[in-house]
Give the backbone structure.
Amino acid sequence: MTKRNETCLFGATMRHLFCVFGLILIASFSTTLTAAADEPKPAAKTEMFPIPDGTIDELFTFINTVKTTPPAERSQEAVVAHLKEQVKAVVAVCDRIMKRNPDEQQELKALMERLSGYSVLSQVDESAAKQLNELFQRYEQDERTAVIQLIGGMRLQKQASGFFRSSEAAQTKYVDDLFAFIDVHGLDQRTVSIASSLGEALENSATPQLGAVVYEGLAKALMKLNDPALEPQVLRMQALARRLALPGQFMEVMGTTAEGEEFDWAAYRGKVVLVDFWASWCGPCRAEIPNMKAQLEKYGDRGFAIVGINLDNTINEYQNYVDREDLTWVNLMSQNESERGWNSPLAVHYGISGIPTAILVDREGKVVSMTARGGELNRLLAELLGKNGASDN
């Protein structure tokens, strides 16, 4: 079960990386798209999108019409051909705009449209990738701050598409470069989108700690804006960073038990503890319970314990399930009604947005797994508590 993330930074969706030319249509195909068409000629007219006469503003309106026109057919070939015609038309319109002595804002907007078009098309057309690089090179010597920010942001956006195909060292360098750029130029819709999307992708990757670095960097950048309205986003980023940094680190667990007693985390030191964020209304959480009970019976006398962090909305919902299933381990649940459900203090502290979240802590109090469910829990317990370090079936 997951909690819908309702946060919207600067009005932009956090998953927004490429937003133009119907890229979503391309992404819907399961096969890899390749290009075999001729290189689009920037100033060429197109039959599909005949370019009208008009003012600069009217030409920008026409660009939006081109970008939002869906293909007549949904085959792979038709979608790619349509995309090429869209980019071809937009580039031609941008050329026409540049011949009409645009002001700086209009020039930058035309440049962004051209860059965006080539960027999307480069996913399926090598010639577009070449044209994109040529466009980068043409403007990289431009000393205007707005141009430097636009070109740098577009380069970072383009590099993000290959992030997970690069080495860990390259990934770390990319994150460093991203926040060095943000330090100089500040946040805008593009860099917020890149950083937040990257952090989200890293949450379930092999390097979640790098995701912690991303979220922490984004939180610091947001704080520099000194906007009280952004405080919830800052706190959310800090919480996500705190959770993703847990592997190999000490985990804090504090609060009140469902019975109203102060929880003593120190009493669990020396034990292997499963910290389980769950709720009785969560089907996958309930599905884990039988195995958790079986592992507790098997390893309880060897030092295994469970601490539940319950996200039910009422004590009655929680207690009815505990009584019915005969759960014997301690559960934390605030006595304050406003701190239940997704507002559970520990869920907020660690940025929990999906349950079950099962975190395994070793005898030293350090996190050894963020996904200790089912067979993974069994394997880890056999490794940590099985006789002679081996599983005893």
